[in-house]
Amino acid sequence: MPREDESRLRELEKTVDALTDELIDMKKRVSELEDDEDVEIEREEVGVEEEKTEEDEVEKTEDDIYVA
């Protein structure tokens, strides 16, 4: 095999290795996100609410009319 072919083969092998590592990392991240989503869905199913701040409870809009 000529040197150019060997060099190109090594380059392609490194690229495949890097892409494989990236794919594995992405699959792990997707799995983590799916697990987080499952937890959120379970919370909603049992009626667990997130803590609300005072601002969340009072809905503000630009159309509100204030009377003095």
Rounded radius of gyration (Å): 27 Å
The total count of helices amounts to: 2
Q: What coarse outline follows from CA principal-axis ratios? A: elongated
Stretches with pLDDT under 50, minimum 5 residues: none
Q: Could you give the count of β-strands?
A: 0
The percent range for strand residues is under 5%
How far apart lie the N and C ends?
Answer: 89 Å
What would the average pLDDT be, to the nearest integer? 79
- The portion of residues assigned to helices is over 70%
Question: What can be said about the biggest beta sheet?
Answer: none
Helix-strand makeup class: mainly alpha
- One letter per element, helices H and strands E, the order comes to HH
How is this structure best described in words?
The chain has helices at residues 3-46, 54-57. The chain has 68 residues and is mostly helical. Helix content is 71%, strand content 0%. The longest helix has 44 residues, at 3-46. The model has no long low-confidence stretch (mean pLDDT 79). The chain has one domain (3-57). The protein is elongated and about 85 Å long.
Kindly summarize this structure in a few lines.
The protein is mainly α. It has helices at residues 3-46, 54-57.
List keywords for this structure.
68 residues; mainly alpha; elongated
Topology:
Layout: H1 3-46, H2 54-57
